[in-house]
Amino acid sequence: MxxxxxxxxxxxxxxxxxxxxxxxxxxxxxxxxxxRRWDSYCPFPVHGLHHAMGLKRSRVPFFTFIGGMLxxxxxxxxxxxxxxxYPLVVGGKPYFSPVFPFPIFYxxxxxxxxxxxxxxxFITNRLPRHNHPLFDYQPFLxxxxxxxxxxxxxxxxxxDPDRVRALLEExxxxxxxxxxxxxxxx
Amino acid sequence: MSTTGTSTRSSPAAGxxxxxxxxxLPGLLLALAVAGIGIGLVGxxxxxxxxDARPVISWLLGFxxxxxILLGSLFFVMIFNLFxxxxxxxxxxxxxxLLAGFKWIAILFLPLLxxxxxYRDPGILWKWLNPEHILPNGYTVAxxxxxQAKEPYLNKTAFTLRSLLxxxxxxxxxxxxxxxxxxLDEDGDRSRVQRQKVLSGAGVFACGLALTFAAIDxxxxxxxxWFSTMYGVWFFAxxxxxxxxxxxxxxxxxxxxxxxxxxxxxxxNYQLGCIALAFTVFWAYISFxxxxxxxxxxxxxxxxxxxxxxxNADGTTNSWWWVGLTLIFCNFLLPFLFLLFYKTKVRxxxxxxxxxxxxxxxxxxxxxxxxxxxxxxxDNVLNYKVRQFTINFWDVAVFVGIGALVLWxxxxxxxxxxxxxxxxxxxxxxxxxxx
Amino acid sequence: MPPPPPPPxxxxxxxxxxxxxxxxxxxxxDLPRKPLVLGDRSYHWVTEKVCGIxxxxxxxxxxxxxxxxxxxxxxxxxxxxxxxxxxVGVWGLANPVNWGWAIVNFVFWIGIGHAGTLISAVxxxxxxxxxxxxxxxxxxxxxxxxxxxxxxPLFHVGRVWFAWWLFPLPNAxxxxxxxxxxxxxxxxxxxxxxxxxxxxxxxxxxxxLGTLRDxxxxxxxxxxxxxxxxxxxxxxxxxxxxxxxxxLLAGLSTPLVLSxxxxxxxxxxxxxxPGWHTTIFPPYFVAGAIFSGFGMVLTLILPLRAVFGLHDLxxxxxxxxxxxxxxxxxxxxxxxYAMEFxxxxxxxxxxxGFAFINRAFGQYAWAYWIxxxxxxxxxxxxxxxxIRENTALVWIISIFVNVGMWFERFVITVTSLANxxxxxxxxxxxxxxxxxxxxxxxxxxxxxxxxxFLRFLPLIAFSEVKALSLPQADPHNHDHPQNQRGQEARG
Lengths: 186, 435, 491
Description:
The complex is a heterotrimer of chains A (186), B (435) and C (491).
Chain A: E1 12-17, H1 20-32, E2 38-41, H2 49-53, H3 60-84, H4 102-124, E3 148-153, H5 161-170, E4 174-179
Antiparallel strand pairs in A: 1-3, 1-4, 2-3
Chain B: H1 25-50, H2 54-83, H3 89-98, H4 102-118, H5 145-150, H6 156-187, H7 191-218, H8 231-257, H9 266-297, H10 300-307, H11 319-340, H12 342-346, H13 348-370, E1 374-375, E2 385-386, H14 393-416, H15 427-431
Helix pairs in contact in B: 1-2, 1-14, 2-3, 2-4, 2-6, 2-7, 2-8, 2-13, 2-14, 4-6, 4-14, 6-7, 7-8, 8-9, 8-13, 9-11, 11-13
Chain C: H1 19-25, H2 43-55, H3 60-86, H4 101-125, H5 135-156, H6 182-215, H7 219-229, H8 236-269, H9 281-308, H10 316-346, H11 350-361, H12 365-377, H13 385-388, H14 391-418, H15 433-456, H16 462-469, H17 481-484
Helix pairs in contact in C: 2-16, 3-15, 4-5, 4-8, 4-9, 4-14, 5-6, 5-9, 5-15, 6-7, 6-8, 8-9, 9-10, 9-14, 10-11, 10-12, 11-12, 12-14
């Protein structure tokens, strides 16, 4: 394995871990070292890892809220629009009231809030993205089974291959590898 | 057991700690209870001598408020036992102490029974208790066709026996659960855990039925023409919410200066906050569905109950219309929106605020269900007035008096028995609970 | 009064101890929690087990089952083709029973769906970890049940090619839907329910699809799973948003599932018909739906567990939990029956009283007592551990639950219509062969969809199982043997 040099085409440096406690403590170390453009990869959401990584609370609820509000207003609008000059007397109910069409408002609120949530998840995660440099690194595919990985990306302002490598080694990482999509043939 | 006996420490901060306390809090509460209940009794006396139902209703309101809190607590104890969750163990013990007040609540129901048996108009509160009571239409209860149909259920003897039965069921399960839980602390007998579950399983059934019929007897039958199959569920939902809100307040004080300092944490509050959110939605769901179905079907036999909560006999909007709107916005919408946010559930001042808010509007909900009623005579063709929304001195006295008594019972129980279920199999999970 | 002297036991009330001190004084009795996954399995074992099911060669029994299911499904097809070609009169609907099997079947199927949402959403909010072993299957069941349910009202409208009028779309005649009608609310409720269930199901599956993509050998599998996985790469930053979104969807699905069956109950309860108009209908229908859904989950999961050898993942703990929920919801349904009966008498409305006496002792008494014995009595057997541990018996009771809940809807729908206010217009309803064919066929439709699901999609949410049901996934559990030496844990 050649020593890592800063060079074009390097995505980052990856280290493999085998257990949830290991990745948890390693993430704490990387967080405390002050890196910003890095990530960990786990086959399942490790409980509390966002604390270890120093992540902020997710922004998905914002999208849910917007969706829900839109849904409610949509419901209100369609019922109002379709009833305002369409006088229908059924069961002694008024032409428009917030009571009888309440189920409509309610269901549309939930429908659009759900779309907002799913959309929010994709937007906050910048997905779908079917191609990613990490997919070219064969051991990475094991992170969807039973391995854990930390990748510190070369775009981090503090990225220095030797120090990154030292940090990952100290954190207990194994198989520390430079991930460079172009150079994988070697 | 080296910790035994040495752990009792006196501290000025231990105001709610029971044994370690130098403060006269229980004594104060007892004095307050005697004063409040005494004033309430005076109110009952003046009401009865003047033939005025309002002070009697004050008594029922205060009684039902604290009954609902204790019933909710009883259900939470049983549900926590059944679900076998780890985080709830510490909280459950507080509720078990709160249940010490049940026997006092049962005794405080007696004045209403005595009125039914010995007052000259037993129908002063529940009209059907007195067949001679004059209805707004000018006839007596005895001639009322609906009363005649319901008479096998709505009569004095059956009512008395049923009320005794309800309290028998509640007290049996409350005491059995308490005894068993405290017993586990002493002997560490593992079979008690299983017994606790069996008791809870049976208790949910028995208490569920008792609560339903209690709600029908005590509240729904005030307007005995009216009926709703949902009513028991409404009282259940309201009780659960009230118990939860009261518990949150209790926990705040115990965590701040009482026995749970450093033990009760935001993560526990988070769980309780989530349940509070769920029951806020549940209460709204039940109340809305009941209203909505009656509104939609538009059958006069049912709608009159909501009509008097909207307008007077002459069609003018009355005070209950505003109370109803208050319930929608303040008892549901605002707490709902408030509890949606994570911060509300973990920040102590916020959760304290929302708990107090919920309790306040739970009181309003009870007023809405209990107070409005047609009374005669009136100078309109329908010959009835709607009793309007008022809060009077007797209400406050009874609320405070019974509350002080319940709190006193709670503190006494806390002083005698452990504040922490030390031998509960899940106690470590509760102490170490994090989100 | 003087406080009694503290007894010389652990029950003395301590002053404010620090949390550490208290932790030292507690002596919990030893009652360890049962493991959610038996056999101390590794992450890799879980992946292999679940992915193996859709990666193996298609088993022969699958083809047989699929052929039979298609055969059964064709009955629905035939029934519907005949109906469209002829008219709704081919069903047994006739005055006074104009809502017959179609509505019964609709409510039956939509109710079955509810357990899926309950398991995936409500139990998620309640942090019930055992749900992870069964939620995917249950969610799939939800979606397929909604598909089956949708068929009936769709064709009940008669001229099915005008069914789009139900939606608030402009048309040449300027006819707008009537928003006062519960049936219109149904359109919104059921279509929202179907859509959100699919979203929830799909979002929960994305990480697992990513695993299948990473394991895929053939190009088409890589393309199929790759497309569906949306480029998921197990990033913790993604998981963070994903978990929040999942929680929110659970939070949205819970009021949704309540509202859907509530609105279905409004179909009946918003009317003025005796036996239909009663305020407890919304929570009663919801409880009944969850009850029937859990019946169906048990009916499906027990054979699956046997066929695929999932005994470690779906073990007695899960069966116990499902049985207890069935017991609880069955008893709630029993409570509602009792309340209806009581208030029918208490309300003192002679029509209402008659409706209930007629249910229990009238011409449909046979249906009523089938309903009572299946729904209220049979689940009471789950009080006994011996019965909960007898898988065959649990399965049989689950069938009873399914049958009972169908009859519940039949009793509600038909008895009230057949004998309402005016004795001169009473009638007796019988289904025709077309009714029976169409309903029978929906089990085939359901099975076809379910078999396809088993074949192509991961039937257990294994990333969730790893996170929540395996003890070594706790990052603070350093003592777990599989966390001792990472290298050795790879087995």
